[in-house]
Request: fold
Amino acid sequence: MSGPGIPARSEQSHGYRTLTLWCPDWPVMAWRRLHPARADGPVAIVERADRGLVVRSASAEARAEGVRPGLRRREAEARCPGLVVAEADLAGEAVAFEAVARAIEEITPRLELRRPGRLAFPTRGPSRYFGGDRSLAVAVLDAVTATGIPNARAGVADGGFASWLAARRADPGGVCVIEPGTTTEFVAEWPVAALGDPELARLLVRLGLRTLGAFAELSEGAVLARFGPPGVRALRRARGLDDTAPVLTVPPPELAETHEFDPPADRVDVVAFTAKAMADRLLDALADRGLACTRVVIEAETEHDERLARCWRHEGALTPLALATRVHWQLEGWLAHGPFSSETSSSEHGPDDRVTGDWVTGGLTVLRLVPDEVTPATGRQLGFWGGDAAATERAARTLVRVQAMLGPDAVVRAVATGGRTPDERIRWLPWGERDLADEDPAPWPGRVPGPAPARVHVPPLPAALLDADGQAIVVSGRGTASAAPASLRSAAATGAITAFAGPWPHDLRWWDRLTRRRRALWQVVVDDDRGAVACLVSVESGNARVDAVYD
Amino acid sequence: MVLAGERLLAVTGALGELLPGGGIPRGAVVAVTGAAGVTTTGLSLAAAATTAGEWAVAVDDGTLGGLAALESGIVPDRFAVVRRVPPARWATVVAALLDGVSCVLAAPPGALRHGDARRLVARVRERDAVLIVSGAWPVEAALRVTVEGTEWSGPGSDGSGWLEGAARTVRVDGRAAHGATGRIAS
Reply:
């Protein structure tokens, strides 16, 4: 792809030599920094999800016992007795990583942050200064250890992706340098899952391609035809080549989004809310010009004329949600200490626990988002499964806007999960949240059979399930009903029951005296004045309820 | 830009056969009313958008059965639900959604003003989207689907068996539909 203004790219060009710094399990590391007594031992950081507290990150010791991200807290504690559980502290993680970024800034100003725990930079200048890649990497690790983070890893290789794999190959606290020219062989031995795209990896495995080397042997034309430009980028990465899309001329400065805060803003949530709208406008403006943004510089000025700037890079093009998330991380890092803290910053830590050196002494007066690297937007392109990527992008932006109108919990998507009853078998995940659990909804014994009801009432509607004599149906401890149901009275349907199936006894958590629930379910067809209405009815502790309506 | 051949969102199955052209015309409002079965019918219509590779969003009061949505043929990767919409903002939210997705499935609040409804009709036409409303729709709709009755099969007379399937009688009215009626089995 070449044309005026677009530099031609050699087919076999490797990326420039890059160092990736990786601190695995960053939430755990950030927490341990504030609790040095717990420097080893199993630790899990949990966050609130719709199912309760769910593991977000686990220490190596915890993972050895089977604790994984996505597990519920109780399951994690069951797998690992003695597990220390702490709630996620987004502000603390961002502050800790800002400290790391500042330490590395002493070595080189050209940092690119990926996410808290991972950053990269080109090594050319610093490597010469330190006398070689290995010495540079050691200096970087020393700087990180000095901020109180142990066991970080550094990888140096040709190109961002290869250096990321090198960082993963390195030992904890160690360095892995892939000599120039050996990158392709190094990358080839990794499994396809290393690309970071689970859908693509699953497909490649089904095609019989398990390693990046095997994937790399496919022809670029075939990959382009099947997967489009994202597939070709993945192919180039698998070959150890430069995977950054061709860079156009420096984006014109008028594309930067600037917002002035008057009076100066000192709360992270206030600034983050504005930043979300700015991110939307910025990416819309770029999209109108047919551009997508892969790297952004977040700049801020305070009322005391301090200037802050940080560069963030994203895999592929930034979406409004991804951009707003990164701005939020950065704001937490800048603002979440000193006199101005967000609500979530840990209040139980005394001032001695905080990082030394205040970075901002006043509120923010200006926030600026500058697109630093833009690429041609891929436009209307089919996703892997025939979806329309542009339609998904547009829909995502709209849903984010509606979330801004109504609150993040107001926009949800449905994820099938395991369970017996219709309400148990679906999880509603707020839009934008990752689905951490990889639950395979295999059939459960005791599952309610038949088609799924279109209306599920949580909490269930009160009802009266009566037998032919007008008496309420009760269910014995053995699960036998006192009589056959003859009529139902409820807000959903009222009338004589013309057909029924059940009772089906459910004995939930029979091993736990406190949370044991015994109930019986029926499917009933009611002759309501509107016609035949089918409902799912349950009787528990003498109370009848309509759980769902087959509308 | 939509090609002439793509003016319809094709609906599969017996329901599609009742619809003129076998699908829902883009830029149209479809009103689904009747007794039991309105939600399931609405979901089957909305599924047409997701199978075409586009997005459908349901605006709901929180009782929508997610599993039923998935079983109706809706592709979960291109479906979302918006809940907790105050009735006063319903029209604004639906209008905002029509900007970004191809199909919105929603139940209008009782107090919906005619002016708001007409504005939504105009927006649907301008965006080439589809709005499926379940319940009373005060202004014109290109297609009106009425669920007239349902017969369930499965349960025996003594509580044995389970609900296996519903046969619904559905009538379609509209400019090109002429009151076509059929039985849709599921």
